[in-house]
Design goal:
Largest sheet: 4 strands, mixed
Shape: globular
Oligomer: single chain
Number of strands: 4
Distance between the termini: 6 Å
């Protein structure tokens, strides 16, 4: 299984370049690396209008900072507040340089792959990243992927069962809060299996956006139409509002519909993770390196 390198042609986008410049000025950034791009094409041709041709790119960044405190949520919020125009979508992971360096020395698959294969878009000193990258062991990759999948998927199943019981008991706020936890654990399963990365955020919108680097199918469950988008927004807010806001009220029909959507999300998570683990098993049998 050959891992693709990100090239200049892949990241040649005026808006993305402006984001990179703005981030470097707003935060103590040492490096910004683009490690993934997905492209959605939408085209319509009919005899009754001028048609439609739309392309939206989704860029995935690793922002390496000199900060000693986590900045991932601040950086993602900054991006979304300034560049939510629909032309491009940007999902940023952020980590301190010391942690990245330590992770690479310990064989962290995500940092090794991104720093060695991604496209360096910004360097505070104008120099390339000078680090030694160990060769990834496919047996370790497989073992860790299996362990993380079983742990996180089991957590998701447990929260889903608790949500079902709360739903049956008429505790609809509780049910939706537990569905939020279910979705979060399913997303972590995806990112750990596919990327070898554990996100810091609990924001399920950002977690699902991160999962889109591997599969757009997960996001479409909640963006199928306006109703599913509204239900997702209700669930997204439950992480805080269900516990602390008296005005947060979930109707039985909303909770039941959300349960069906999250159940579908968890089932798809299982399918995708098992397929990826199968890829790692084939890789191990072939003797190739990641």
């Amino acid at each position: 299984m050959k891992i693709a390198n990100i090239k200049y042609a892949d990241v040649s986008d005026a808006i993305l370049n402006k984001v990179v410049v703005d981030l470097s000025q707003a935060f103590p950034v040492r490096y910004i690396i683009c490690w993934g791009i997905t492209t959605d094409h939408q085209e319509r041709i009919t005899c009754f209008d001028n048609g439609l041709k739309q392309i939206q790119k989704h860029f995935f960044l690793l922002v390496i900072t000199d900060a000693n405190t986590p900045l991932e949520q601040d950086i993602q919020d900054y991006i979304e507040s300034k560049y939510e125009n629909g032309e491009i979508v940007i999902t940023a992971i952020s980590c301190g340089f010391a942690n990245v360096n330590e992770g690479i020395m310990e064989g962290n698959r995500f940092f090794i792959t991104v720093c060695s294969k991604g496209y360096l878009m910004y360097s505070s000193d104008g120099l390339l990243i000078q680090l030694d990258y160990p060769v990834l062991d496919h047996d370790i990759t497989l073992t860790k992927a299996e362990q993380h999948f079983h742990h996180r998927y089991h957590m998701a199943e447990g929260f889903l069962l608790a949500a079902e019981q709360s739903l049956d008991g008429g505790y609809y706020n509780h049910a939706v809060f537990l569905l939020h936890q279910t979705t979060e654990q399913a997303c972590i399963a995806i990112t750990k299996v596919f990327l070898g990365y554990r996100p810091d955020t609990h924001n399920i919108k950002q977690l699902i956006d991160l999962c889109c680097s591997n599969s757009k199918k997960l996001k479409t469950i909640f963006t199928y139409n306006q109703v599913t988008e509204q239900l997702f927004d209700l669930m997204r807010k439950s992480d805080v509002d269900a516990r602390y806001q008296n005005a947060y009220v979930v109707q039985s029909t909303e909770a039941e519909s959300l349960y069906q959507l999250v159940h579908e999300f968890v089932e798809l998570t299982q399918v995708l993770c098992k397929e990826k683990i199968g890829d790692y098993q084939i890789l191990g049998a072939s003797g190739d390196h990641l």
